[in-house]
């Protein structure tokens, strides 16, 4: 490594982040013994196949051009330490003038489940969650509704507890 935050072959670390994260997330972890790989849930059978799937995704997101170089969109996506699909969603939101909502949705998707389930309050938690699903809206809009409801209460802890204990 050089001291200028670039890899030895000249690609800035920021530009490689999303690409590396995507590839790392798809490459099977090495198990005991040389060249033995565990199949992951995605059914990836080899590092080469994993790399090709990662490249396919990055091409589909317009992050790479035909020379397998980062595009301008890819460079902007790499600015976000997120899953490439979430990064693309944020980059595209500028065009549609909905960045605030998209950033909120991306944040909600990045933290895992937001509904805490107490074993004895499972039904209450499920009912509370379903209150955010109206008129056949999808998960992303439901998450945005949850966030906006919480925001309206000035990020109240009591509001969160009320959702669980309704």
Automatic annotation (TrEMBL):
<feature type="domain" description="Helicase-associated">
    <location>
        <begin position="53"/>
        <end position="144"/>
    </location>
</feature>
<protein>
    <recommendedName>
        <fullName>RNA helicase</fullName>
        <ecNumber>3.6.4.13</ecNumber>
    </recommendedName>
</protein>
<dbReference type="Pfam" id="PF04408">
    <property type="entry name" value="WHD_HA2"/>
</dbReference>
<keyword id="KW-0547">Nucleotide-binding</keyword>
<dbReference type="InterPro" id="IPR048333">
    <property type="entry name" value="HA2_WH"/>
</dbReference>
<dbReference type="GO" id="GO:0003724">
    <property type="term" value="F:RNA helicase activity"/>
</dbReference>
<dbReference type="InterPro" id="IPR027417">
    <property type="entry name" value="P-loop_NTPase"/>
</dbReference>
<dbReference type="GO" id="GO:0005524">
    <property type="term" value="F:ATP binding"/>
</dbReference>
<keyword id="KW-0067">ATP-binding</keyword>
<dbReference type="InterPro" id="IPR007502">
    <property type="entry name" value="Helicase-assoc_dom"/>
</dbReference>
<dbReference type="Pfam" id="PF21010">
    <property type="entry name" value="HA2_C"/>
</dbReference>
<dbReference type="GO" id="GO:0071013">
    <property type="term" value="C:catalytic step 2 spliceosome"/>
</dbReference>
<dbReference type="GO" id="GO:0003723">
    <property type="term" value="F:RNA binding"/>
</dbReference>
